[in-house]
Amino acid sequence: MNKKKLTWISLVLALILAxxxxxxxxxxxxxxxxxxxxxxxxxxxxxxxxxxxATEPAEPKERVFTDSVGRKVTLPxxxxxxxxxxxxxxxxLYTAAPDLLCGVASKFSxxxxxxxxxxxxxxxxxxxxxxxxxxxxLEAVLxxxxxxxxxxxxxxxxxxxxxxxxxxxxxxxxxFIEATFGGMPKTYRDLGELxxxxxxxxVLAKYCEETLALCDKAMAEIPQEERIKIYWALGDLGLNTNxxxxxxxxxxxxxxxxxxxxxxxxxKGGGSEVSMEQILQWNPxxxxxxxxxxxxxxxxxxxxxxxxxVKNNRIAVVxxxxxxxLGSPPSVNRYLGARMLIAAxxxxxxxxxxxxxxxxxxxxxxxxxxxxxxxxxxxxxxFE
Length: 384
Known about the structure:
This protein is of the alpha/beta class and 384 residues long. It folds into 2 domains: 62-210, Nitrogenase molybdenum iron protein domain (Rossmann fold), CATH 3.40.50; 222-380, 3-Layer(aba) Sandwich (Rossmann fold), CATH 3.40.50. Helix content is 40%, strand content 11%. It has helices at residues 3-26, 87-96, 110-113, 138-143, 159-170, 184-195, 199-221, 276-282, 292-300, 302-305, 308-311, 333-345, 347-350, 354-366, 372-380, and strands at 62-66, 72-76, 82-84, 148-153, 174-178, 228-233, 240-241, 257-259, 272-273, 286-289, 315-317. The strands form 4 sheets. The protein has a 4-stranded parallel sheet with strand order 8-6-10-11. A 3-stranded parallel sheet has the order 3-4-5, with helices on both faces. Helix 6 (184-195) packs antiparallel against helix 7 (199-221), helix 7 runs parallel beside helix 12 and helix 12 (333-345) runs antiparallel to helix 14 (354-366).
């Protein structure tokens, strides 16, 4: 091969080598794993942002409640401070939701506070809207941060105007819930709806239903001629009574016991006035009295001594602690009274002792547990 040809081949080879090196220089440089100056490659997958959840609608701050006379009243959705309009409302609210009470109609007595939690003795007293005193203190109600005033009991003729007027006067909701003896299950269920929680009120409503069923059974099975006739002695001398047809004697429409005082009924708490002559004419089988002191007075009085009930020592004290068993006020406490009357006068029918009746009711409604000594004093009317 001649020299010229070799030179040409050398040039071609040199050109190819130059092109190869150029191409290799254009390729991306792979990182050297041993080179610590190179940033480490992450083997983690970047997190995917979570899908945004739909915002739940906020609970409304207010709601509308329809009371027992059809009034539609706007209330806070969650109630924390309620006020009773009087003694009857106080006892029902105490049994249903004691820790929501921001005040009471009247202060708990020292005797009551021996049985119930003493913290309730610190609640302010508002007075009562109805009744002879009519001393309901609206300023105190406002000062306590009251969210709703609750009136419970018998519907007055002016109830709508009264509740509307009070509500407008202090710009605080006022509710009326009817409470009769036969209607107490509904009263508690209405309260459960009002309070926004029926856990406790439903238990109390069922107890009331069971009591009414017991009363119906007793009324159906104990004939009229076998029923006990009683006189309910009130006042210092025993010459006042809750007559047939009065709201305070309503309990006797549900138990097989005859109230002999068939006279003009009084709507006042003191009852109707009667004479000794009328009582002698009625000649009851038994006498109910409100205190041990009155029982002793009747036993010593020659006029009363002419009665067969006194001769046979058939005088029964109606216990009054923490509330009267038959009234004072005429509220759910009467359910205890109904069971007590049936258990005391018809023990074979009831099948349980008066003592057990009281213990059960006290625990369920008042959250009170009494020992045997306390119970004996309560039933004798001597607990102080």
